[in-house]
TrEMBL record:
Descriptive protein name: 2-hydroxyacid dehydrogenase
Alphabetized InterPro entries for the sequence: FAD-bd_oxidored_4_C (IPR004113), FAD-bd_PCMH (IPR016166), FAD-bd_PCMH-like_sf (IPR036318), FAD-bd_PCMH_sub1 (IPR016167), FAD-bd_PCMH_sub2 (IPR016169), FAD-linked_Oxase-like_C (IPR016164), FAD-oxidored/transferase_4 (IPR051264), Oxid_FAD_bind_N (IPR006094)
Source organism phylogeny: Bacteria, Pseudomonadati, Pseudomonadota, Betaproteobacteria, Burkholderiales
Keywords from the UniProt entry: FAD, Flavoprotein
Entry superkingdom: Bacteria
Signal peptide interval: none
């Protein structure tokens, strides 16, 4: 680096310090470490600095400085992503822009059923603020205690309630965004109808910070259900689960808010690594489904609906056994079986994750066909298959055979990924259902997106971020 370049960089860094305050300008290794390594601990990047602005105006000032000095920006929320979308590369040329200080709930409108929140708000805090107004914010994820709404919007997160309420995109009515030039676009109007041209909001949702930086949002709220009832059903195959889904939807309609598929091996891992937690049946079953009803009438009414569904499912031999939670504690215990799967798999060792979606009607066939392909690519591997069956999203994960070293197993990842992703494509699915592309799947998507789609995406990127400074190396 020449002396002129060194001076130019120091001028930029000093301007950033002045803009946000020295306490929020981080360069020491001990201070920046948590911002540079991904959630799974597999990758660590480098950065010029970690910047922690405290307002939308400070974000805009920093972005203007980056645009003037052509410094790349990596926006970051809770850094809970799984596809390397929120950490910088190893060049050390970018700044990490942490939005965690933008954590105010600006307004709650219970009549309009909306809440205006800043991007750094922790998802769980938004849920609690909604509950305090007798309202529900239904987005629910395993990482809800640490992920932020800005990150949820940037990846169009899904979660366990998509079946009833939709992805994060469906839960957002308006955005405040800092553009790549440092301008502030605000559309925090909370309108459900606004047919005045292009829907710019939808461009930024799911863009993973590559087009601009989301700083605030208006999100939808819903009436709190009078009761939530949970059941766990044991069954033989994913095809039986699909038939159970159709039955439950026909009987319960929109009251069915959760429908999670979990294989027996998932339950074995949870029981092994978290011994108090195990499926409440006297024998093992090949598959399990966790169902939840959210009822607007009463707990009695919800329980009666569940009992009717379970009774019909037993009569039609769709399920072999079932339990209905009779208390909040029992309901939480059933949900813990689902929520502990990822942690149990991590305790078991390195694993190869796939966040995929296929048409709901083809899930059973997809699992049967793809299980064979994966065994051919990695004989003896163990399938950890679980996910949101009601919306077609599977976490189709692969653990190594017993006795195989993690380092040896990870060498098989390219072959396993190719088998899974090619199968997903043949079934008309997507290789990223709710985690995004980040850097991890940026090259992979080139195999599956059409040339027209890629050309349009690049045209949008060029139009909104002509200097390619916004989260470079991600998505495209």
């Amino acid at each position: 680096m020449t002396a002129a370049q060194q001076d130019f960089r120091q001028d930029f860094l000093q301007a950033c310090r002045d803009a946000i305050g020295i306490a929020h300008f981080l360069t020491a290794d001990a201070d920046t470490a948590g911002y540079l390594t991904d959630q799974r601990g597999r990758y660590t990047g480098r950065a010029l600095a970690v910047l922690r602005p405290g307002s939308t105006e400070e974000v805009a000032t920093v972005v203007k400085l980056c645009a003037r000095h052509l410094v790349p920006i990596v926006p970051q929320g809770g850094n809970t992503g799984l596809v390397l979308g929120s950490v910088p590369d190893t060049s050390g040329k970018a700044v990490v822009l942490s939005l965690t200080r933008l954590n105010r709930i600006r307004a709650v409108d219970p009549v309009n059923n909306t809440m205006t929140v800043e991007a750094g708000c922790i998802l769980q805090n938004i849920q609690q603020a909604a509950a305090a107004q007798q309202r529900l914010f239904p987005l629910s994820l395993a990482a809800e205690g640490s992920c932020t709404i800005g990150g949820n919007l940037s990846t169009n997160a899904g979660g366990t309630a998509v079946l009833r309420y939709g992805n994060t995109r469906e839960l957002c009515l308006g955005l405040e965004v800092v553009t790549a030039e440092g301008e502030i676009m605000s559309s925090l109007r909370g309108l459900r109808k606004d047919n005045t041209g292009y829907d710019l909001r939808d461009l930024f949702i799911g863009a993973e910070g590559t087009l601009g930086i989301i700083t605030a949002a208006v999100v939808k709220l819903f009436p709190q259900p009078k009761a939530q009832v949970t059941a766990l059903a044991a069954l033989r195959t994913p095809d039986h689960a699909l038939r159970l889904l159709s039955l439950a939807q026909a009987q319960c309609g929109a009251a069915l808010t959760g429908f999670e598929l979990m294989s027996d091996f998932c339950m074995q891992l949870v029981a092994k690594h978290f011994p108090p937690h195990r499926a409440p049946f006297d024998r093992l079953h090949p598959q399990y489904v966790l169902l939840e009803l959210s009822d607007s009438e009463s707990e009695v009414h919800a329980s009666e609906m569940f009992e009717a569904v379970i009774g019909l499912a037993l009569e039609q031999e769709l399920i072999d056994d079932a339990v209905i939670a009779s208390s909040i504690a029992q309901s939480k215990a059933l949900w813990q079986l689902r929520e502990l799967i990822s942690m149990a798999q991590a305790h078991e060792g390195k694993n190869i994750k796939h966040d995929i979606s296929v048409p709901i009607s083809r899930i059973g066939e997809f699992i049967r066909v793809t299980d064979v392909l994966v065994q051919q690519a990695s004989p003896g591997c163990r399938m950890v298959t679980f996910g949101h069956l009601g919306d077609g999203n599977l976490h189709y994960n692969v653990s190594p055979p017993p006795g195989i070293k993690d380092t040896d197993f990870i060498l098989e990842q390219p072959a396993i990924n190719r088998a899974v992703h090619d199968s997903v494509d043949k079934f008309g699915g997507s290789i990223s259902a709710e985690h995004g592309l980040g850097a991890l799947k940026r090259e992979e998507i080139l195999r599956y997106k059409s040339p027209v789609e890629l050309r349009l995406m690049r045209a949008i990127k060029q139009a909104l971020d002509p200097h390619a400074l916004m989260n470079p190396g991600k998505v495209l």
